[in-house]
Write a structure and sequence with these properties.
The structure holds two protein chains of two kinds. Chain A has nine helices and 16 strands. By secondary structure, chain A is α/β, with parallel strands linked by helices. The termini of chain A are far apart. In chain A, helix 4 packs across helix 5. Chain A has a single domain (2-260), classed as P-loop containing nucleotide triphosphate hydrolases (Rossmann fold), CATH 3.40.50. Helices cover 30% and strands 29% of the residues of chain A. Chain A has a six-stranded mixed sheet, sandwiched between helices. A four-stranded antiparallel sheet of chain A has the order 2-1-4-5. Chain B is mainly α. In chain B, strand 1 (163-164) and strand 2 (167-168) form a beta hairpin. The N and C termini of chain B lie far apart (50 Å). A two-stranded antiparallel sheet of chain B has the order 1-2. Classes of the chains: A alpha/beta, B mainly alpha. The interface between A and B is medium-sized, with 34 and 30 residues. Chain B: InterPro entries: ABC_BtuC-like, ABC_transptr_permease_BtuC.
Chain lengths: 261, 359
């Protein structure tokens, strides 16, 4: 019940970013990839979703993504891109319905509306997608992605969500809402891999964190073990202090404790 | 008294199932086509009346030789060719717009028709130099096949030039289209310069774009190519919908993007090649028809492509009707009629979507 990526290398010009990365993720938990700009987080996600050509091997639930047919992969995993583009004036409902295409869930026609309600966009079905705000567009795409792999566990095993900065354009309430959806998906047995920028949300919701730096994994493990002063300060190149939230064991960072090194 | 509340949620538009409307449009547009076909058969420079022919046929009376010739050898092939060419122009426009994710992509505007035309002109002028075995093998098909190859090659070049990492640059596409069109035009010019008198007569009608030369043999040549391209649209619609979200997302929802692109390029080349081969360059049908349909029934390609074929056929027959009656008994080249109707629509789209084409 896993995703394994072995020795992932992507050539960008003369550089290789990521440069020989291994990543393991378990279904039933949220795995976050964090790191500074340009460290290769998004490229790593693109590599393990077969979006950019890469060296190495990626197995999702026993399927080799380089050789498995697209429809078979689409039934097992859905991908939320960072920047969503859309040509032509489709309505929100029409966009979310596109998640039904892969057909791994018996084409239940009520799913799109249920997914829209889940992401807080109930009643938006008839709106034009291009007229939504950036955050609403991102949540509409999340609804489409949820429709594609609706049941966290199917007859042939867990489903996977690959999310590239799922909360980047959202306000704090919607950030929490989306992270809650994602966490519940994992608790129900599905797999989640998310590229994240917000370290506090990562600490709060991730079960497993991979910290990337210059195309390599600098540290990986549970957030309370890997998100330390030393590691984060070194990776981000600035002084950071990790504390513990009053109510629980999760680490948190406050910007007023941070300073440029 | 109604009072606006702070933070009230704006009224949501009702959920209109445009899919159902678009499916119903299949029937309406098919009906329109039938009506237009009847009008087209009934209209012409000669005194032949469709009513007279029909009543004679129903009563079992003999139909005069003139009426028979006018109906079966002049109006009917022209009608069938108008349907085929109109459908293929609209379908190639709609498929190309889906492929390039842009409502301004049209074979006539971005050099694909020019490429197909160059292929056809090459076949006419240089055909004499081809091995005679090949000529006997392809026969009547030489010109359409060459036009198909020309259109295919220019679509591939255009796609390679204007699409980087799965994203199409509108500016690059339009500029590359101008360059391709100019190049094809220049080479065509050289060939026309080389052509002898007989070939020149064959070539004259390319520039005009007309259904006047319709014959059954041309219909038989273009029919299968256009039929194939319309059949292909049944398989392209779903994929083109996914492609609207970009190549990567289309791949993630399970679409075989490479196969889709190849299929779309082949469809565009087949439809454009066949249309150009039999009727020369007729512009703007491919841009106006899909645009009107998107406004009316939405951009869902699963219904848009077939509706485009139906409406394209009707509109071209109407344009042909106009071109036949406006200066009767002479024929105004149909390309002029479609340009007069289509160019303002094109400008209108440009103005509405100016932000999209800013360089």
């Amino acid at each position: 019940m896993t995703l394994t990526a072995r020795d992932i290398r992507v050539s960008l010009g003369r550089k290789q970013v990521p440069h020989g990365v291994d990543l393991n993720a378990e279904a039933g938990s949220v795995t976050a990839i964090v790191g500074p700009n340009g460290s290769g987080k998004t490229t790593l996600l693109r590599a393990i979703t077969d979006e950019v050509p890469c060296l190495g091997q990626v197995m999702v639930e026993g399927l080799d993504i380089a050789t498995a047919p697209g429809w078979q992969l689409a039934a097992r995993r859905a991908v939320l891109p960072q920047m969503a583009t859309l040509a032509f004036p489709f309505t929100v409902l029409e966009v979310v319905r596109m998640g039904l295409m892969s057909g791994g869930h018996g084409q239940d026609p009520s799913l799109p509306s249920r997914a829209l309600a889940e992401v807080g966009l109930a009643g938006y079905e008839g709106r034009f997608f291009q007229e939504l705000s950036g955050g609403e567009q991102q949540r509409a795409h999340l609804a489409r992605v949820l429709v594609q792999v609706w049941a966290p566990v199917g007859q042939d095993g867990p489903r996977w969500l690959f999310l590239d900065e799922p909360v980047a354009a959202l306000d704090i309430a919607h950030q929490l809402e989306v992270m809650d959806i994602v966490t519940r998906y994992a608790r129900a047995g599905g797999g989640v891999i998310a590229v994240m920028h917000d370290l506090n949300l990562t600490a709060l919701h991730a079960d497993h964190v991979a910290i990337m730096s210059a195309g390599r994994i600098a540290a990986a493990g549970p957030p309370d073990l890997v998100m330390t002063d030393a590691t984060l300060s070194k990776v981000y190149g600035c002084k950071l202090r990790v504390g513990v939230a009053p109510e629980g064991p999760r680490p948190f960072l406050l910007p007023h404790c941070a300073a440029l090194a | 008294m109604a009072r606006a509340e702070i933070g009230a949620i704006p009224a949501m538009p009702p959920i209109v199932d445009r899919h159902r409307t678009a499916r119903r449009a299949h029937v309406w547009l098919a009906g329109l086509l039938v009506v237009v076909c009847i009008c087209s058969l009934a209209t012409g420079a000669s005194g032949t009346s469709l009513w007279r022919v029909l009543t004679a046929l129903l009563a079992g009376d003999p139909v005069s030789v003139t009426d028979r010739v006018v109906m079966l050898d002049i109006r009917l092939p022209r009608l069938v060719m108008g349907v085929l060419v109109g459908a293929s122009l609209a379908v190639s426009g709609a498929v190309m717009q889906g492929l390039f994710r842009n409502p301004l992509a049209d074979p006539g505007l971005v050099g694909v028709s020019a490429g197909a035309g160059l292929g056809a002109i090459m076949a006419i002028v240089l055909g004499a130099f081809l091995p005679s075995a090949l000529i006997t093998l392809v026969g009547n098909w030489t010109v359409p096949v060459a036009a198909f190859l020309g259109g295919w090659l220019s679509t591939i070049i255009l796609y390679r030039v204007s699409t980087r990492a799965g994203r199409t640059s509108v500016a690059t596409m339009l500029l590359a289209g101008i360059a391709l069109g100019a190049l094809a035009g220049a080479v065509s010019g050289i060939l026309v310069y080389m052509a002898d008198d007989r070939q020149l007569r064959d070539l004259t009608f390319w520039g005009l774009g007309s259904l006047a030369g319709a014959t059954w043999s041309k219909v038989l040549v273009a029919g299968p190519m256009i039929g194939l391209s319309i059949l292909a649209t049944l398989y392209l619609g779903r994929g083109l919908n996914g492609l609207a979200m970009g190549e990567a997302t289309a791949h993630h929802i399970g679409i075989n993007v490479q196969r889709l692109k190849n299929g779309a390029i082949m469809t565009v080349a087949l439809a454009t090649g066949a249309a150009v081969a039999v009727s020369g360059g007729i512009g703007f049908v491919g841009i106006v028809v899909p645009h009107l349909l998107r406004l009316a029934t939405g951009p869902d390609h699963e219904t848009l492509l077939l509706n485009s074929a139906l409406l394209g056929a009707s509109l071209l027959l109407i344009a042909d009707l106009v071109s036949r009656v406006i200066i009767a008994p002479a024929d105004l080249p149909i390309g002029i009629v479609t340009a007069v109707l289509g160019a303002p629509v094109f400008l209108w789209i440009l103005l509405r979507r100016r932000g999209l084409v800013d360089l």
